[in-house]
Amino acid sequence: MSDRVLVLVRHGQSEWNLKNLFTGWRDPGLTEQGVAEAKRAGALLKAEGLAFDVAFTSALTRAQNTCQLVLGEMGLDGLKTIRDQALNERDYGDLSGLNKDDARAKWGEEQVHQWRRSYDVPPPGGESLRDTVARTLPFYIQEILPCVLRGEKTLVAAHGNSLRALVMVLERLSPEGIMKRELATGAPILYRLAADSTVIEHRDLIA
């Protein structure tokens, strides 16, 4: 069994997830459900017998709080945690803060769907998933992957789209495939890597 362990966790439900708002780089906190999801993720990882050596998270509160709650549930308070905006959520630009239904009423169902689900069409003033990959992947290669390959069990607590950028590479998904890959809030994905950084095992951990 490889000791090159990488775990990705999307933050728990945020206040704006609950309100069906485009969030992006805006910084709402977790809901009570989001806190419970983060703690459950920690309990699932503890049940796997994992103990992390290092954690990474974004510059946004909801991911940082999720990271802290996961580690706290595992008895790993105080673990070295690196925060970087390279792991921030996709920037939704002019859509940020808007209700998704209101956005559809303003721009039309088809246009909003394209902004949300296409790989390379950004919303006005924002990032496409392709842009997010271009921002997130170098940080993964330069900062996260070396930790994993050294045998440091590594946690990344971030966002749906910044994590999709990593999943796309780890699972070798096409641009079409990654847009269909759903990442539930507070649901850890466990990867074990070979020495050449390819994935030899991956599991979605669910309660």
Automatic annotation (TrEMBL):
It is an enzyme of class 5 (isomerase). It catalyses: (2R)-2-phosphoglycerate = (2R)-3-phosphoglycerate. Pathway: Carbohydrate degradation; glycolysis; pyruvate from D-glyceraldehyde 3-phosphate: step 3/5. GO terms for molecular function: phosphoglycerate mutase activity. The keyword Isomerase applies. The record marks 159 as: Transition state stabilizer. Gene3D superfamilies: Phosphoglycerate mutase-like. Its EC number is 5.4.2.11. It comes from the Bacteria. The active site is at residues 11, 89. Substrate binds at residues 10-17, 23-24, 62, 89-92, 100, 116-117, 160-161. Keywords: Gluconeogenesis, Glycolysis, Isomerase. Catalyzes the interconversion of 2-phosphoglycerate and 3-phosphoglycerate. NCBIfam families: pgm_1 (TIGR01258), PRK01295.1 (NF002339). Homodimer. Belongs to the phosphoglycerate mutase family. BPG-dependent PGAM subfamily. HAMAP family: PGAM_GpmA. This is 2,3-bisphosphoglycerate-dependent phosphoglycerate mutase. The gene is gpmA.
